[in-house]
Amino acid sequence: MAVFVGAHAAHAQEAKTTEQDRKPRVTVLQRLVVSAGVAKVAIDTPQAVTVVEQEDIDRLQPETIGEIIRATPGVNVTGSDRLLGQSFNIRGIGAPENTGDGGRIIVNVDGAQKFYEQYRLGSFFSDPELYKRVEVLRGPASSTLYGSGALGGVINFETKDASDFIAEGQTGALRLKSSWNSNGNGYLVNSVLAQRLGDNAEFLLTGNYRASDPYESGNGKEVIGTNFKAWSGLAKGTFNVGDEGKLRLSYQQWDSELEDQQLSQTSGDAGFGLVDRHVVDRTAAVSYENPFADNDVLDLKVSASYSNTTNKQRNASLRSFCSAGTFAVVCDSNYGYETWQFNAQNTMDWTGDDWANHLTIGSQSSYQTRKAEAFFNNGNLFPVTFHPEGTDVKTGVFVQNEFIWDERLTITPGMRLDWHKLTPDGALNAPSSDDTAFSPKIAALYKFNDSVSVFGSIAHTERFPTIDEVFSTTSSSSQFKPSLSLKKEQSNNFEAGFALSGYDLVQDGDAAQLKFTGFYNDITNLIALNSELVPGFNPTREGYVNLNKANIYGFEIETAYDSDYVFANAAYSFVVGKDKSTNSYLTTIAPHELALTLGGKLSDYDLKFGWKARFAAAPQDASRRSSAPVVIPPSTRPSSRYAQAFDVHDIFVTWKPQDGQLAGWEANFGVDNIFNKQYKEFLMNDDAKGRTFKVSLSKQFGW
To answer: Alpha-carbon distance 279 to 219, whole Å?
Structure first.
């Protein structure tokens, strides 16, 4: 059984090779996907998925997490490029102004689910240097394995392991790295220590310190408040248990303490003044997995995790206005999310002469508390009504089956049942709220031959309202009663596409792939702030209501080519979203975009170099095509959703000697926005960075 399964995975990963060295030719569409069920390569996965690996991250030299996924089709960063202002958007779902969007996109770190929501703050705080791999699963089909409500999709971050640094035949490694960029005089100092003890244990310890002054946009204007400093670290141990078991323990912490930082991190709005802010994010996880190769009905994975994100705000410049209600935002205050989670799943395998079946069953449970407290100038505590405290308890069970016939037809049905209960803190006089959600799906892929395949899926998912949506009683200008009558958001998603692969096209041993995915997402009962609220007191109206329907549809194209001397990737995303009740464009949909990479290799000199470009169209709504804030009637306030079409170009060079005395060194050089383009992303509220020179240098020692 295990031999059959392993042979199937190896067959999926196989690619044409050169006659000279017979090394596998693997493009970005042939990278292994481990987050969608049974491991398979991206082009053979019946949903849209992108894998970002260590080589990509090193080449990008990212300062923020958002830079890692920016070129992924259908995926964008919302809010700002500020360290504390970034959130994610997948296929038009996700915006920092919408309190529920943290639940519409599920973010995991080593299996631990991360969630944070706070007024004018981002949703995920971490450092790119901690991670070696990111998988982005687009669309609601991911809800089966990761939780109902993944209307946009799932982003899985995987931290580094000791084995990533310890060379074959050695027992330890030390890597020292530093990087610098010209725009903001930003720098990183990093160290990694990896050690193997015997045959059954290895440890990794890494630490980072990153800092920057404010950056400048293309017109030379300083973007105030984009300065930052943060340190982060990861400790991880991996142990072999028995013949096949593997136990992993990890703890990571990210810490940023800044004085006189703009209170609004999701935009350049200076009207909220300045504040001293200390944000700490902690994640601890323990996992055990065992494939039980001699037992067809056991392939076990169990994990438990703890996540705690806290924000302490002090000394706001507008602190004199501190009072209960809306102006609690300028009081000395503490905010936080603490989550305990337990996951368990098992996969059972059966095979025949020309078929294989993999049945996965599992469960996920979590207990999350949301904290918020503010202090009057006299030190007395009072609740923050726009950030209500409470608990969110979830339990879900799921089953997913993958049937493979003749290594051609793959059928993957799945379903998930979730239950949750929201309980407000005692300060709010409101009852608890509980509900269930059901998320079924079916996906299929058929391979006509090694070059052509077609796929499709139908998925339904339901998102529970969040603590903020149900129990908030204050917005920026209104007071209202809790929204206890909210219904679940529901999504019906349809996808279809095809994939093409070719080999020996231009020269012997080259490889090229193309994957096209079309989708149509019908969303009902969208939750939003009640538009009928009036400034002041609304004692009979709920703050959040269910809207009618929204449709989001479009397509994505991914292509990749690799050869001995040339590599190229391209991704195009076309997404349209409309509110069915008004026929107006959704303001969370990024404009159509084309991302290109063209590179070369000089293997004899251990060099890779290339050019990257992004071509973004103007917003779909013509009234928002502007280089300055615009007022969209019936609103009387300038909108942050405006942009113009732009193209931005980068270059990069990577040098990584493999042999000789220079082995262990690595250097990356790049220039982002090489033509110093002045532009603004539609989903971002600050002007983008101008020309930025980047350089990083690392040296690894082994023993």
So the answer is: 31
